[in-house]
Amino acid sequence: MKSQIILFLSVPFLALASSWVQPKGGIFLSPSYNYYNANEYYDNNGNKKPMGCTFKESEYQLYGEYGLTNKTTVTFKIPYDYLSCGGNSTSGFGDFETGFIRQIKKDVDYSFSYYGTAIIPTGYSIDKSLRLGYGRFGLEGGGLFGFSGKFGFVDSGIGYRYYFGYPSSQVRSYATAGLNIYKHIQLISTLNLQLGLGNGKQKQVGQNILLEPNYKLAQIYIGPRIIFGNVSFVATYQYVFWGENTGVGRGLNFSLWWNF
Fold first, then answer.
1. What is the pTM of this model?
2. DSSP class per residue in 210-231
3. Residue 232 predicted with pLDDT over 80
4. Residue 178: partners with Cβ closer than 8 Å, 6 or more residues away
5. How many Cα atoms sit within 13 Å of 153 on the Cβ side?
6. Could you tell me the pLDDT band of residue 131, with boundaries at 50, 70 and 90?
7. What is the pLDDT of residue 43?
8. How confident is the model at residue 11 (pLDDT cuts 50, 70, 90)?
9. What per-residue string of b and e applies to 82-92 under the rule 16 or more CB within 10 Å gives b?
10. Could you tell me the pLDDT band of residue 3, with boundaries at 50, 70 and 90?
11. What are the structural domains, with CATH classification, of the chain?
12. Residue pLDDT, tens place only, 26-61
């Protein structure tokens, strides 16, 4: 069923890795819960079509950063997913990600950095029609830029992701803005763009299933951030408003941002 092939790709997480690094010994943790659903998909011409079932994902995720030095931060991400569509369902750990952020230059109000990430499959089956990932090792790297000031902050990044033994690599980018609304409240908005490059030859992955890697999507997250000292609560609404070979999805995301 094609809807089950493409919907794995339509649940990207809100980017957290930022151009600002942690101070040496500093720790940032962000536990989060993300709910996503879709009953339509964008075909390879960008037209909306019905799926025939409602795809649902609940994801529990832990993201973390540790200041190895004052210029280098190490990162990790661990997701656990529950997926369903019609009578099919699966659950388990998705791909584990670990990497680093290296600051190139900073001033009082801006920061330039670059990053690298390794994508590591966690042993899930790729024979299921609803799979937790590609089952392929991958690498991602790119640049980051952030600016902060009186009215809030802007954080952005662009990177290239390559999967070993799998056809299509991807360009991924994001821009997040935090607008100061009140003393302890910001409006958070993120624009996320992902473009499959279509390079390589299509190959079968799993039993009678082709996981479409050559997808494109643009989505937005928007919602409040409530700040309590070194802890923040963030709640955002997610919507995929354009795409090809991906789901017309929407969702809710709740997370804590904790620096210590």
1. 0.90
2. ------EEEEEEEEEEEEETTE
3. yes
4. 152, 153, 154, 155, 186, 187, 188, 225
5. 18
6. confident
7. 85
8. very low
9. ebbbeeeebeb
10. very low
11. 2-259 (2.40.160.40)
12. 999 999 999 999 999 888 888 998 888 899 999 999
CA pair distance 141, 115, nearest whole angstrom: 5
Q: Are 79 and 72 in contact (CB under 8 A)?
A: no
Phi, psi angle pair for 213, to nearest 5°: -90, -15
Question: Which two tokens mark 83?
Answer: 């997926």
Pairing of strands 250-259, 72-85: unpaired
Nearest in space to 77 (alpha carbons), one of 17, 36, 35, 123: 17
Give the contacts of 182 (CB within 8 A, at least 6 positions apart): none
> How does strand 48-67 pair with strand 72-85?
antiparallel
What is the C-alpha separation between 129 and 125, in angstroms, rounded?
Answer: 10
Give the contacts of 257 (CB within 8 A, at least 6 positions apart).
28, 30, 225, 231, 232, 233, 234
Cα Rg of the chain (Å, integer): 18
User: Which residue is it, tokens 């990177």?
Assistant: 159
Helices (H), 24-158: none
Rounded Cα distance between 42 and 55, Å, is: 14
